[in-house]
Amino acid sequence: MRIDHHYAREKLTLLLRDLDSYNGDEFWRQMSRIAHGATDHPSAEALLLERDALAADRADLIKELVPCQNVLHQLAHVGQCTPQYANDARDVLQRVTGGNAPTFEDHRKTEATPCPPR
């Protein structure tokens, strides 16, 4: 990894000069920015923003997965597809949420036609 020593030394000198005026969060933010400027690696702030964006995307996906799993559960319950489709959807939902998604119990008397693959 390449580091711009001149940039880092100059910015750290300023940071140390004004150290008494920083609280913990501001000090952390400035150190992260100096490291980013000297190495061109993402700053901690940028990584936190990316983490928050990924968490929001995950929440949106969960909002979509829950109704899909419910529809598959209902279709399997009335025999329109095999219970395995509903259980597969439940397994995906469980992996994504880290929670306990409901299990579909097969109460059909005859074997249903499997749902066609996409």
Ordered list of secondary-structure elements with their pairings:
Elements: H1 5-17, H2 24-39, H3 44-77, H4 83-97
Helix pairs in contact: 1-2, 3-4
Provide an overview of this structure.
With 118 residues, the protein is mostly helical. It contains four helices and no strands. Helix 3 runs antiparallel to helix 4 (83-97). The chain is rod-shaped and about 75 Å long.
What's the shape? rod-shaped
State the low-pLDDT regions, or none.
none
State the secondary-structure class: mainly alpha
Q: Report strand %.
A: under 5%
What is shown here, in short?
The protein has helices at residues 5-17, 24-39, 44-77, 83-97.
List keywords for this structure.
rod-shaped, 118 residues, single chain, mainly alpha
